[in-house]
Every structure is written in C-alpha cells, then in structure tokens.
C-alpha cells in the first residue's frame, strides 16, 4: 500500500440503474444460468474466462487486462438484507447506509468531514458530473461539483451562477420528497456557495494537463479524464465521485448493455493508464458499484430489478482476484423465487475502503460493524 494513508485517494463510480452482474461477470459453465436466461444471455464464446466457472463479458475486454495484471478485485454477491427494488430508495440506501429508515447524511460526505474536519479545502470531495449525489451531502461539509472542466473554464460568472442554480435545483427536486424540504434547504444554504467556489478553483486545470492517453468520446470517459486532470493538479482532493447512467435495462438489453460495458471498461483502463503515465497511480483506488443486480430470469427483452449484484475495486495497490462468494444460481436458493442472494453486505465493502485505504473509522459512517474484505497489498 502507498506509504501514507493521508495521501490515498478514492474514486467512486456509480453505475446508475442496476448493472446486470450476471452478464458482466458471467457464470459461463452454469446450467442454471442458461436455463434461467433464454434471450438476455452471454454465450460461452462471448466470455473471457478468468477461471473454470466465471468469465468477463467480451465487451469488457479492457477490464480483463486489468484483472490479468492483478489490479482488479471482483466483489461478488454484494447487497444487503431485504434489498429494495426502487431505484430511488435503493440508491438512497447505498448513499446513506440506512436501509431501515431514510437517512439524511451521505457516506462520502461523512468521510470528507473526517478527512478535513475544519473544512479547510472545498476540494477535499469533488463530484464530476451534473448535480450532486446524496452520497456527498452532509450539512456543513463543503463539496465541489463540476460538470465539464473544459466548458467551465470559459464560462462567465452569470453562466456559472446559472449552472450552479440548475445543479442545486436538480438536487432539491430529487431529495425534497425523501428527507423533507427543511434538511435539504439547510444543506443547500450551507453548501451551495461552496459548490461554485470549488469549481472556480478548477477553472484552469484543463489547460495545465497533457497526456498521450486518448480517452473515448463518451460521458464516463470524459468524467474520468476530468478526475485524472484534477488529481494530477495536486489540489488536495481525497474523494472523487462520478456516475455512469443507463443501466436500467428492462428492454433492449442486448444492444444496450454491451455498449455500456465497452464505454465503462475503456474509460477505467484509460484512466489508470493516464495515472501510470504520470507516475500517479499508486495512491488511487477506484470503487465501482450499482444499486442492485438484475433478476435471474430475463423478461424476453431485458431484465428486471433484482439483488445480489457485484462491485469492483481497481488500482495498483489492490490484490486482484475474486472476493466474497458468487451467489448460488440454483433455483432452490433464489431469494423470493427469482433473485440472487447477497453474500456480503455493501457496508462492509465501504468499511474496507474507508479503514484500510483511507484511514477513516468506518463504524459511524456505515452505521455499524460489518464483515470486511482484505483486498489491499500490505
């Protein structure tokens, strides 16, 4: 592990909509998989095997390279008891670590507060992309959100104010209904101005960056390039957050999901290649998660909301390989007769990253003590 946890950086990537884990890390020798999936299925010749039972979807070939290099940990069967199938509530649970009540403090925001208790640096936590994720929202904790570094650098003040207003309005519209207008307004009142202030500090970051890595022309690639730019600028950011949307594949999954995996895997590989080129990869770990998996059986055109999904860790300080257990595919073991059972609690995975990588006590952030993994090199 890098010598000093005080310098370690975490990049969180949210796959919005519920990634189909079974079609990402494919149980390509399981008769149960092929019995359950009639049309929305990955055939054996579309798999890059990692062992005798599991393989990566060929559309995620760049991830296979990272896996073979020992820089990718696959966390199997991640979830929590009585998984909630609502996108909004499901993601809210992952954002606040509160499955039994509606929480009003995001886990990333709480971690930012621990890392920078005096709020000395408005760039300790940075969201790259529109709006602000609930995961970062904690009253009194300044975070920065920037949609596009290149565009932001040439905006005038009025345009920036309008952009800030739009981002905060989107945040307010989503979360008023969940936690009430009071807490949301209080948060915006204390934090909104910092979103703009922090973004102003990033205005010239794009101009100072150069790299031979050519990122693709898609949202997640652009976002991760901006993460790289900010990280390489050395502005003290400890946690980055970004999202990749489109994973709610109820219909047209076979044309949609491969493109998502291509974009995501290419962006992640380019991001780490970029950091390597700048000798800046050793202190960065990336956590990729989604709010739930998809159901065992397909619906003929796609897959519906399920549980027992998967998450991923990437980085040169990650001990690559498989972690936790792939959920049983035997129909006798399905939850509610149609879902994969989770085998590790997501709060234990958060705890692993917080304590072992960031040096932050996890219990008050994840609201309890949960089994952790050991995915980092000592």
Question: How would you describe what is shown here?
Answer:
The mean pLDDT is 91. The N and C termini lie close together (5 Å). Strand 3 and strand 4 (55-57) form a beta hairpin. The chain has one domain. It is built from twelve helices and twelve strands. Helices cover 37% and strands 14% of the residues. With 378 residues, it is α/β, with parallel strands linked by helices. Helix 2 (61-68) crosses helix 10 (253-277), helix 6 (157-179) runs antiparallel to helix 7 (181-201) and helix 9 (219-232) runs parallel beside helix 10.
Structural class: alpha/beta
Question: Average pLDDT value?
Answer: 91
Task: Please count the beta strands (DSSP E, at least 2 residues each).
Answer: 12
Radius of gyration: 20 Å
Give the count of helical stretches: 12
Strand-residue proportion: 5-15%
The level of helicity is 25-40%
What is the secondary structure topology, with strand pairs?
Elements: E1 9-15, E2 25-26, H1 31-36, E3 47-49, E4 55-57, H2 61-68, E5 72-79, H3 87-96, H4 107-115, E6 125-128, E7 144-146, H5 149-153, H6 157-179, H7 181-201, H8 205-208, H9 219-232, E8 239-244, H10 253-277, E9 284-290, E10 309-314, E11 321-323, E12 344-345, H11 346-357, H12 363-366
Parallel strand pairs: 1-8, 1-9, 5-11, 5-12, 6-7, 6-8
Antiparallel strand pairs: 2-4, 3-4, 5-10, 9-10
Helix pairs in contact: 2-10, 6-7, 9-10
């Amino acid at each position: 592990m890098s010598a000093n946890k005080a310098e370690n950086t975490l990049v969180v990537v949210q796959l919005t909509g519920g990634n189909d884990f079974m079609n990402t890390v494919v149980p390509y020798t399981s008769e149960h998989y092929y019995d359950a999936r009639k049309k929305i299925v990955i055939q054996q010749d579309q798999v890059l095997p990692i062992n005798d039972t599991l393989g990566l979807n060929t559309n995620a070939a760049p991830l296979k390279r990272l896996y073979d290099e020992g820089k990718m940990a696959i966390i199997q069967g991640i979830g929590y008891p009585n998984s909630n199938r609502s996108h909004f509530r499901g993601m809210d649970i992952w954002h606040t670590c509160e499955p039994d009540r509606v929480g009003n403090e995001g886990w990333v925001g709480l971690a930012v507060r621990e890392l920078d208790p005096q709020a000395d640096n408005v760039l300790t936590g940075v969201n790259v992309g529109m709006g602000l994720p609930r995961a970062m929202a904690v009253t009194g904790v300044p975070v920065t959100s920037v949609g596009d570094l290149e565009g932001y650098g040439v905006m005038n003040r009025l345009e920036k104010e309008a952009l800030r207003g739009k981002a905060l309005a989107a945040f307010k519209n989503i979360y008023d209904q969940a936690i009430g207008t009071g807490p949301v307004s209080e948060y915006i009142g204390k934090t909104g101005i910092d979103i703009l202030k922090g973004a102003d500090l990033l205005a010239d970051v794009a101009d100072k960056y150069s790299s031979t890595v050519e990122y693709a022309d898609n949202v997640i690639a652009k976002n991760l390039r901006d993460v790289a730019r900010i990280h390489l600028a050395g502005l003290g950011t400890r946690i980055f957050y970004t999202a990749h949307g489109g994973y709610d594949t109820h219909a047209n999954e076979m044309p949609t999901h491969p493109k998502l995996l291509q974009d995501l895997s290419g962006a992640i590989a380019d991001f780490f290649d970029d950091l390597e080129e700048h000798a800046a990869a050793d202190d960065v770990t990336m956590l990729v998660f989604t709010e739930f998996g998809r159901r065992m059986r397909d619906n003929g055109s796609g897959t519906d909301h399920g549980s027992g999904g998967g998450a991923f860790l990437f980085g040169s300080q990650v001990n690559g390989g498989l972690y936790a257990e792939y959920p049983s595919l035997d129909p006798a073991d399905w939850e509610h007769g149609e879902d994969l059972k989770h085998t590790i609690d997501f709060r234990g995975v958060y705890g692993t990253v917080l304590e072992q990588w960031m040096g932050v006590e996890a219990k008050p952030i994840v609201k309890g003590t949960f089994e952790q993994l050991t995915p980092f090199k000592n």
